[in-house]
Amino acid sequence: MANVLKMAATWLAGERKTHLASQVTYSRPDALLGTGTAGTGTVGTGTATGTAADLTAVFYATRGLTNYELVDESGMKVGAQCIDWIFTTDDFVPVFGDPQRGDRVIDENGVLYEVLDLGGMGFWRWSDTHRQSLRIHVKEVYPA
User: Fold this and answer.
1) Using alpha carbons only, how large is the chain's radius of gyration in Å?
2) What pLDDT digit, counting tens, does each position of 54-90 carry?
3) How far apart are CA 40 and CA 23, in angstroms?
4) H-helix segments, 70-134
5) Residue 144 — pLDDT band, cuts 50, 70, 90?
6) What secondary structure does DSSP assign to 26-86, as a single string?
7) pTM for the whole thing?
8) Handedness of CA 104, 29, 33, 118 (dihedral sign)
9) Over residues 109-120, mean pLDDT
10) First CA to last CA across the chain, in angstroms?
11) Cα–Cα distance for residue pair 105/99, rounded to 1 Å
12) What is the chain's mean pLDDT, rounded?
């Protein structure tokens, strides 16, 4: 018997990418790459290029928000919100694997975002139970 929920999650990820996404450039600076990662190829919905300086790929991603709470030094809960970019797993993971601190996203308006650790909860999380999409937490670094 087919897994209907997984088929629905796959369909929904495709629809999100087609109708709710915008083109973004994702890059990993040289300091995070190590050695032997550079290369060029077509991946998912865009082209990935690598040099000795960085690895960059163009994807379609959807902007989202995550609400979270932190406890400050005095024990008070502080609510906050961060920006997320939601990528289709089949596009993103073959190029970059897991997101890392220092990775960058540039949106179609030229706004620069940097991947951040969300209050000790990590840099990203799966956006659905079938791992069709991943949600990467970022902070705005440079406005357009």
Assistant:
1) 16
2) 899 999 999 999 888 878 889 898 888 889 999 999 9
3) 19
4) 89-96
5) low
6) EEEEHHHH-SS---EEEETTEEEEE-SSEEEEEEEEEEEEEEEEEE-TTS-EEEEEEEEEE
7) 0.76
8) negative
9) 89
10) 50
11) 11
12) 83
C-alpha 105/C-alpha 141 separation (Å) is 10
Q: Tokens representing 132?
A: 């069709």
Summarised one tens digit per residue, pLDDT across range 22-46 is 999 999 987 666 544 444 434 444 4
Eight-state DSSP code of residue 102: T
Angstrom distance (rounded) from CA 72 to CA 91:
37
Mention every residue, 6+ apart, whose C-beta is less than 8 A from residue 43.
Answer: 57, 91, 94, 95
C-alpha–C-alpha distance, residues 54 and 11, integer Å: 32
Residue with tokens 């018997």: 1
